[in-house]
Amino acid sequence: MPAPKGPPELKHLDHVLVSPTAIKRRVAELGNQLNKEYAKKDLMVVAIVNGALIFTADLLRVMRSPLRLDCLRASSYHTGTKAVGEPRIIDQMKLDVRGHNVLLVDDILDTGKTLAAVTGLIKAKGALSVKTCVLLDKKGRRTVEFQADYVGFDIPNEFVVGYGLDFNERYRNLPCIGVLKPKYYGG
Ligand code: IMP
Ligand code: MG
Known about the structure:
The chain is of the alpha/beta class. Helices cover 20% and strands 28% of the residues.
């Protein structure tokens, strides 16, 4: 079968930081680590959407623990590449986390504000344990102290798109993680 062509927006990338093959390999590794950590434990996976959608979908298909999935929606990036204000939870979860092991999954750890806020919220709701798993970590951008338990890739301080990550809601369907050509960050 010929390799499927990617979306035309691939041409908008200045450079690729993480290839589809590298993502696939790393997601499998993370999934296997999680399988060890949560073997025989009941787990609630909470994806922070929209960004974590594709990462979570791929990760879940590697995971072997008995689990349930829920999503929550947090928003701090209203436009472009600039975070505006504090993260807000704009869509609450359906499942009750009280007494459960929770694994929070997000696309990227940037300033740390989103995961710090959501972790606090889930702990306050009475979760038995809360761990975090992110595909990407921009350690140089932290404004609040936060470390994820599981990290796919450390990346430099550049605004990235693809594999779930967007710029103004576009580029989520790119199969790789990349940086846009400057002219596309205009709007
Ligand atoms: P934090 O609260 O600053 O850690 O931001 C986390 C959220 O900001 C992530 O869940 C992303 O939705 C978004 N974000 C941060 N950096 C990037 C990026 O480089 N590309 C796309 N979205 C980003
Ligand atoms: Mg996000």
